[in-house]
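FOLDING PROBLEM:
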Amino acid sequence: MGRTLQNTMINLGLQNACDEAVYQLGLDMEELEEIEEDAGLGNGGLGRLAACFLDSMATLGLAAYGYGIRYEYGIFNQKIRDGWQVEEADDWLRHGNPWEKARPEYMLPVHFYGRVEHSASGAKWIDTQVVLALPYDTPVPGYMNNTVNTMRLWSARAPNDFNLRDFNVGDYIQAVLDRNLAENISRVLYPNDNFFEGKELRLKQEYFVVAATLQDIIRRFKASKFGSTDSVRTVFDSFPDQVAIQLNDTHPAMAIPELMRIFVDIEKLPWDKAWDITKRTFAYTNHTVLPEALERWPVDLVEKLLPRHLQIIYEINQRHLDHIASLFPNDMDRLRRMSLIEEGGTKRINMAHLCIVGSHAVNGVAKIHSEIVKTQVFEDFAALEPEKFQNKTNGITPRRWLLLCNPGLAELIAEKIGEDYVRDLSQLTKLHEFVDDDLFIREVAKVKQENKVKFALYLEKEYKVKINPSSMFDVHVKRIHEYKRQLMNCLHIITMYNRIRRDPAKLFVPRTVIIGGKAAPGYHMAKMIIKLINAVAQVVNNDPMVGSKLKVIFLENYRVSLAEKVIPATDLSEQISTAGTEASGTGNMKFMLNGALTIGTMDGANVEMAEEAGEENLFIFGMRVEDVTELDRKGYNAQLYYDRLPELKQAIDQIRSGFFSPKDPNLFNDVVNMLFHHDRFKVFADYEAYVKCQEKVSELYLNSKAWTKMVIRNIAAAGKFSSDRTIKEYARDIWHVEPSDLKIPPPNEPRDAGQDKTPNGTAA
């Protein structure tokens, strides 16, 4: 979520009043804002997307809740020591969190372990361990519409009789100390992005948030006029018309068997009725196609932790496979491919298959990704129910990612086209009229230059490096992962370095290359990539032949509040994943909206950015998905590129020989070995096209006016990438609710009874 103070002031229309009031107290608002800790309760794009969605849902007047875990320790703080990443605990609650309100009155029990007893009256899950879920509510204000939604995060608490019910009479002290075991559930965020680690504590976290949330939703449904009780029992027929639940990836997939358990075991609904309601309630968003990221939980672990849920999953699977067998008799291979249970070695549950079968809608997050989901990853399921599969291209909130982080540009745009674009970003197309307006061109360039000077001062303060603010700011910030190819950027840096040294007199367009992002603590290769970037920076930044022509900076502890500083100052945005691997990306959109140009592959939302702005207004290079598929068919041979490309050979030889690690010449052997022998992401295959494309970037940068005109064309085409547009599509196509642009009256004005916002809309 990042910081909340400035976002709240902007959405409430109070920023100027607060700035002034604080100034009159002899304080500086910006200094005050810097004191707030980031709430870093997710890993990368997935968690930030959820935050943007909350802002858009409130701004569109949807009655929506965001549910998650209140981690005591969020994503680790990254320190760089001697070029290596070192993790520190993110004790973000140390000084308290003024934005949250604990709601102990809504505390709920969550059960684990135990066993299942079957009787004539149905299944009973008994002898369980209970953990309490304590909700904390954080307000989510819409933009200037007097709407405030809620984000509800669950914290784990041990019940007061924890470990004291049983025979522990003797060791009272130990029993109280053991309360920590239960409360560990919400202790810390697992720091993996795009990688599945099948740990018991992680499964506990996933079920914990699901079980608490579903009880909360059902409590709210029963309290509403729709949960009409027929004598004793609630009638759930209208449940899917009143409730929509969106599964953000497979992490909350246990919600599907949990809702079935509630309906069948507790509410005593017949299976078929319960299943119909469940399917119509859930929808699933897929966020990645990388096989190592797909959640596949061992059956033994689920059986131990959630025995009743395993039985329900088996029943769902049996009925699912019976249905497929009736459509495709004797096609055993299809049954194996489509089963929720993967046999062979340890039996595992494929959570994506569970989500597809248990949802009425499945979507990818960019056009190209949704196609890959349909035609490759889940092709058997799409063949069965093509109408279930949709696309919802991701977006970003223009409140945080323009108004808040780039007020200079936001104001400049407002002067030209008015202020309405903040709630309707498609209005940015009006900027096309000013693409040849010399004054506007100069003003856009001036705002960028001011942002660069400000960020350069920040860098000099934090990193003690002198930055040339007129150099091109070439920025690559995102999680460190092989598929995102920070290594390819690194090879380009080495190539530029070698060119400067080979011919120091030759004209060279000065660059400051900024790379930032966290590596999962257990991801060895990603940590080596960070070390390599820092080792290259060490050499480049201290070579007198290079001087101010080329500087390399690794940005420590990349997070939302740092993104808000670097993105407005960026000239060139690096979006260079291997085609077919980045589901969407959202950083790409933030850079586009803030007046950077993009160098990128035809991957994720880059494809649609090129479609909106015109391919000639992005620097697109490299293999397309088809080329990657063809290369896989032929077999990728890295050696061929090394032999054919002298500059690539020189760069690799320098890494291999210890040019960048003289104290330990073999330091980067693992990296070099990977690039030659098991590079799934084909860095060498795109290297030549990338370097040539970078030459075109430098050439255009020399012509400041032509560059800025291209920037304006990009900003004018960024309207599609508002999360407001994304959420309107979810609302229309999946949740079946109407957004309301009614501004409800402020609390100090009397409200018309007839002016209710959503008389009977679904709560998402």
About this structure: The CA atoms of residues 417 and 430 lie 7 Å apart. The chain has three domains: 37-190, 196-394, 407-415+424-715. The domain at 407-415+424-715 is CATH 3.40.50.2000 (Rossmann fold).
